[in-house]
Amino acid sequence: MGTVTEFKALGNGSPSANYVSGVADGRSARGGGSALTLYLQVGIDDYAKGFRAGFFGQLGNAGTVDER
Questions:
Q1: CA distances (Å), 35 to each of 10, 11, 29, 39, 45, in order?
Q2: pLDDT tens string 9-46
Q3: How many helices (H) and strands (E) does the chain have?
Q4: 66 and 58 in contact (C-beta within 8 Å)?
Q5: C-alpha distances in angstroms, 15 versus 3, 45, 57?
Q6: For labelling alongside 57, which of 8, 25, 40, 49 has CA 20 to 30 A away?
Q7: How far is residue 38's CA from residue 16's CA, in Å, rounded to a whole number?
């Protein structure tokens, strides 16, 4: 069996401007009943991650994504 390794993102811990913009757009899209495009469903950049967090309401108390 192998070992489990936890990876941490580099940086100061604050979300990027693209992530914050994605969260705001995701919340707006959810409120408007919009559908997710393929890019927003599987995109791995900060904007797409933020959009999904806002769209699906996966924000923790500190305003970051819950990591489960």
A1: 32, 32, 8, 11, 19
A2: 556 678 899 999 999 999 999 989 888 899 999 999 99
A3: 3, 0
A4: yes
A5: 29, 12, 16
A6: 8
A7: 22
